[in-house]
């Protein structure tokens, strides 16, 4: 998970280290747990993910409990254009699930590795869809004192 955050980070390891005010060698030791160094802590990981715009940490934690991470969007920042963009992301992720199933079935059966990839794509789709549904409700919820 830490490697995925670093790979997604603009500027890579060097920029991530700088943003955490760590020398590169010290950052590497913490990130990869070398030389008996403690791993990066939750605050550091959240800082990196906030900058990178990723959600690997909550996705990982949710998966430990058999769940999926669903991002809750700030209703005040939503509009119909944003909702439409979410629906396109959701559609794309559904297509990715269907594509993984089709690829897996090309030889007539689904291996464990293929099943894992199908489920990874499915979880990403369900997360996106749930976020989209919550956002639609939040955006169009009847508010007291607001004319419909």
From TrEMBL:
Top-level lineage group: Bacteria
UniProt name for this protein: Phage protein
InterPro entries: YmfL-like
Species in which this protein is naturally found: Pseudomonas putida
């Amino acid at each position: 998970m830490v490697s995925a955050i670093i790979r997604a980070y603009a500027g890579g390891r060097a920029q991530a280290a700088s943003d955490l005010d760590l020398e590169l060698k010290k950052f590497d030791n913490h990130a990869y747990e070398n030389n008996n160094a403690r791993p990066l802590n939750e605050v550091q990981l959240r800082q990196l993910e906030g900058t990178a715009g990723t959600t690997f940490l909550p996705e990982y934690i949710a998966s430990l409990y058999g769940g999926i991470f669903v991002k809750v969007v700030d209703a005040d920042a939503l509009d119909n254009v944003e909702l439409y963009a979410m629906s396109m992301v959701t559609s794309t992720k559904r297509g990715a699930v269907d594509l993984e199933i089709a690829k897996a079935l090309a030889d007539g059966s689904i291996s464990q590795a293929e099943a894992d990839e199908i489920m990874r794509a499915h979880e990403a789709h369900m997360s996106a869809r749930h976020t989209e549904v919550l956002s639609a409700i939040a955006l169009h919820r009847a508010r007291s004192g607001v004319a419909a």
